[in-house]
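Support request, priority: normal
Reporter: lab tech (M.K.)
Component: structure prediction queue

Hi team, I submitted a job for FMN reductase (NADH) RutF from Bradyrhizobium barranii yesterday, and the status page still shows it as pending. I've pasted the exact input below so you can check whether something in the sequence is tripping the parser. The sequence length should be 176 residues. Please let me know if I need to resubmit or if it's stuck on your end.
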Amino acid sequence: MQDVAPQDYRDAMACLGAAVSVVTTDGSAGRAGFTASAICSVTDDPPTLLVCINRASSAYASVIGNKAVCVNVLSARHEQLSRLFGGKLPAEERFAAAAWSTLETGAPVLADCAAAFDCRIADIVNVGTHDVLLCRIVALQRSGCTDNLIYFGRAYHTVGVTDPAETGPEFALARS
Ligand SMILES: NC(=O)C1=CN([C@@H]2O[C@H](COP(=O)(O)OP(=O)(O)OC[C@H]3O[C@@H](n4cnc5c(N)ncnc54)[C@H](O)[C@@H]3O)[C@@H](O)[C@H]2O)C=CC1
Ligand SMILES: Cc1cc2nc3c(=O)[nH]c(=O)nc-3n(C[C@H](O)[C@H](O)[C@H](O)COP(=O)(O)O)c2cc1C
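Reply from support: The job had stalled in the queue. We restarted it manually and it finished. Here are the results:
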């Protein structure tokens, strides 16, 4: 099979806008977290989402060792937090920038995120540089879902619902 070049692939993938989450874990294998956009819903029965994690990520050993993650979906105001968890900072400095609680698994739950999916890792598939984590949702936290942080064209944007009560959902996309 003839593969396209990784850079050509990334250039094309930059055309796919995606929601941004901070994926966290805690437990005997340690507390860690990373910014992620490679996340999607698999099935609602049983409620399952998938997360792709680079095995070179500093969070990898903790995620695999704890067998649990929380997917914290970011709102527009969390752009700086996304940058912190996507950088090379030590874990303590990443977590110091926000308030956290826990639900079922002990993975950190971001206080004011749009939605948090607390998960146990049910299965893992190795693909190239990444592991695909199949994550069963064991608890949820939801707050107002009025705006989201979006990563598109190698830049952050926000998408929001304006006046949903009066006019129905109207969506606006703005570069931040
Ligand atoms: N799935 C992943 O592991 C992702 C990793 N990143 C990392 O964040 C940094 C900045 O990324 P960009 O500004 O978007 O520029 P970029 O040129 O590195 O990536 C463009 C797009 O390609 C995809 N991509 C990039 N690296 C990938 C990887 N190693 N595996 C699978 N897909 C990948 C993503 O959809 C990304 O938005 C890079 O270090 C990149 O590797 C960003 C998005 C997704
Ligand atoms: C917008 C954005 C989306 C990302 N999505 C993913 C992802 O889905 N999976 C992944 O393994 N890394 C992803 N990354 C990269 C990780 O956040 C980053 O590589 C990780 O924190 C590595 O840094 P570290 O090894 O110093 O922790 C993304 C980065 C950014 C900025």
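The mean pLDDT is 93. The radius of gyration is 16 Å. Let us know if anything else looks off. Ticket resolved.
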